[in-house]
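Lab notebook: predicted structure, single chain.

Context: the supervisor wants predicted structures on file for every construct in the current expression panel, including those that have not yet been purified. This is the next one on the list. No modifications to the sequence; it matches the entry in the shared construct table.
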Amino acid sequence: MEKVFKKAITTIMLPTIFFGISACATTSINSIDNDGDSRRVGKVAWNNQVDTDISKMLAEQVANDETRLIFIRKNDNDPEQTSANIAINDRFQVSLHPGNYTAVNSCVGTNQLSAHATGFKDNNLLAEQKDYQLASGQTYFFYVDMDESGQGTLDQITTESALPLLATKRYQTHQISRVVPNCPTPVIAIPPVTQPAPVVEQPAVLTEKMTIELEVLFDTDKSIVKPDYYSKISEVAEFMAQYPNTLVTIEGHTDSRASEKYNQALSQRRVDAVKEVLITQFGTAPERLNAIGYGELQPRASNNTVEGRQLNRRVIAIIEERPNN
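Prediction complete. Output recorded below exactly as produced.
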């Protein structure tokens, strides 16, 4: 792919060189002015990016039939042709430059997202696509990184991880989005004239404590939950929905490598991240969740072997009935 990208760059640059020579002779006719964020050709002027208050944007309510997506581009010095063409459901959103971010609303449900280098010049809006299930009225954050060969990565991150990144980024304004939600109109059911008396069902009661071991793996010294593990975490949310009077304690454990203080702090960050996913992705009430990092204090196998250390690195959800007051 890198060879294809470089060939595309060469194809773009050669005409640009010749165009640049002729442009010098016509500057007086078509005035071009680049000053900081501002760009002007003749009488047409625009800004590449602007400073915005991200807190005001996030405070705006998202419609029930829509979801909000925010794409954040890493600060780097990669070539201009590595601008990331962001596409949503085969519709162009923006050619995102380093250090910028962009926001757009889309429809709920499955969304096909793609980040593909401008330099390929293939207009493939589904290149390297990833599918995400997005809920109504929510805001989702995606981190974009393009390397100098044009290879792009697009990963979903939590609100906790996104906010510090957005504090150092600027909103990109010089592209016109082609993303139009066109979400189906919600169907409003008309109730019948007469209704039978509702049957009040007693909520299911959990008679004994339930333990679910979450197969959530983290990168070294990281506490970001990758979307690949959301399906396992959803089992906890579904179980809690079946038993609405339950509480969950999320326990985090590590092996004994590094110091005890370091391991305890790392395990706490990780269980806090799992708790955040349950709240933001699956709508679990925060008051029903507790997160405790035990570090290396509760091993279930020997830390002297690779296998034992693997067993000790675990995240567990313990579900039990809420005690009667």
